[in-house]
Each structure stands twice: as structure tokens, then as C-alpha cells.
Amino acid sequence: MSRSYDTEEAAALLERTPAALTSWLAGLPESWTRANEGPGTWSAFDVVGHLIHGERSDWIPRARLILEGDGIFEPFDRFAQLESSRGKGLDELLAELTALRGASVGILRSWNLGPADLTRTGTHPELGKVTLGEHLSTWVAHDLSHLAQIARVMARRQRALVGPWVRYLPLLG
Fold first, then answer.
1. Burial of 6 by CB count in 10 Å (0-12 exposed, 13-18 middle, 19+ buried)?
2. CA nearest 53: which of 87, 32, 77, 30?
3. CATH 1.20.120.450 fits 7-172, yes or no
């Protein structure tokens, strides 16, 4: 099945991510939101910080570079949130993500992108030439990947407690 990027379809998901995370995570004990899968892995708190960093320096900024004419992307620090989130609370991060994402989706919609825009390219430091359509589609998949990551990390906190039901819970594998 061949599909192409659709701004409204993407925006419908992108604008819901902060609300979904807020509904899911706000007010939970840190035992849930700071749990990770071991050294070098991320908690829900870390993921929210990572999404904020992406709003500030990845999705819209890189899309602008493409639209302005075959821009070369700066490398993205996938771990910047470990420093930038330090000393903040999760509710503060969720509010920040909500505001930033609202602005980003507004910008995305305002561009009224057409098929020709989506074929424009930029240069990723590791991947080489990428199209705007690929970049924006990745934004959607990125959100979904991190929602799944949070679910996995939180579910795995329960692994030792579920006893024999573990065989029916693939997320715990």
C-alpha cells in the first residue's frame, strides 16, 4: 500500500502527543516516571525532555532549512535532555512540551505544504539527502516510538510481579 505524507493526518497525531503524555504521566509517583531499564536507558521523564529538545532544535528548524533551500542539518544531540531537564519537574516539562508542540503544529499547518514541497531535500549529517516528506513523517513515527518506549519501560517495572502471566504479556519479554 503506497501512501504519501499528509500534513493534517500528521498534525492530528502530533498535536495529541503532549495531551496523551500529560494525561498518562502527570501526577504519577517518580517511581513510575523516573524508572528506566538500566544504565544508559531513558525514563518517561527523560523521553519528555528529549521531545522538548526535538521541538527546539529538530523538527521545525530542520524543515525550515529544507524549505529555505537544501539546508545542511546540524548534528542533533540525542542526549541533551539529560542536562537541560536537570532540576525541573515532570509537570513543568509536560507544560513546556505542550506549548512548544502547539507552536510547532501551528507553523507546520501554516506552511500549506504541497507535493512539490515534500520532495525538497536537506542534508542529514549521518543519513545524507532526505526529503521534507521523510523528515516530517519521521516526526510522527518518532512520537509513536517514544510512546511505545514509555509503555515498555513502565510495564517492565511489573515483570517480576506478574508471575506466570508474563507469558501473555509480550511487552515484558
1. middle
2. 77
3. yes
